[in-house]
Design brief:
This protein is mainly β and 196 residues long. It has strands at 11-12, 19-20, 23-27, 31-32, 37-39, 42-47, 52-54, 59-60, 66-71, 89-92, 117-118, 125-130, 134-138, 146-147, 153-159, 163-167, 175-176, 182-183, 186-188, 192-195.
Amino acid sequence: FDVLSIPDDAIMMTDSSTTLAGGYYVVRNDLEIDERIVLTGNVHLILCGDVVLYAPKGITVPADGSLTVYTTSEERTNAEENEFEPCGGLCVCECEYPYFAYDENCTSAAEPYSAGIGGTQGVDCGTITVDGGVVFSIGGTDAAGIGSGAQAACAGVVINGGFVCTNSGAHGAGIGSGYNGTCGDIIVNGGIVYAY
C-alpha cells in the first residue's frame, strides 16, 4: 500500500470507531480508542505515515471475519536499534509507544481470557494478517497476544512484514492460542517477530 492506493471509500477512523464492519479503514492521525474494538467482517486497517493507533482494550476479530494491517510508509524496523519510525503503529497494550510489548513498562488492558488481537473467551476468531507496520499486542490473562482467547480457536495468523512484538497475559501464546485453545497455521513470510 502507498498513500495513492488507499481506496476512495476507505472510512476515516475516529475515537468512536469501536465497531467496524467489513471494508477499508484509515488512520491518518495518532488516535486512541478506549473501548475494545469489535470487527464484524473482513477489515483492512491502513496506518498512514508514522501515525499510531492505540487500542489498549484490544481488537476482536470474528470467526467469519478477518483483520489485515497495512502501513503506507517505508518500513524501518531494526529491532536492535529500536528503529520503528516512520512506520505506522498499532499498540494494543498500555505503554508509551514504542516500548517493546514485553517491556516492564507495558501491561495488558484487555479483559481476562481475551486476546489482545483476536478472540475472546469461548468465542473463535478469524485470520489475522500483518502486512506491515509496527504491531505491539498483549493479551489478557489466559489469552494470546495475537490469536485466540481462552477455550477458543483462531483460524490463523500471517505475518508478511513489519515489526510484531506480542506477549500473552499468562498461560497463553504470544502468537497462537490462549489457555485450552487452538490456533490454525502461523505463517511468517517476512518482518521481525518477537512472541513471548
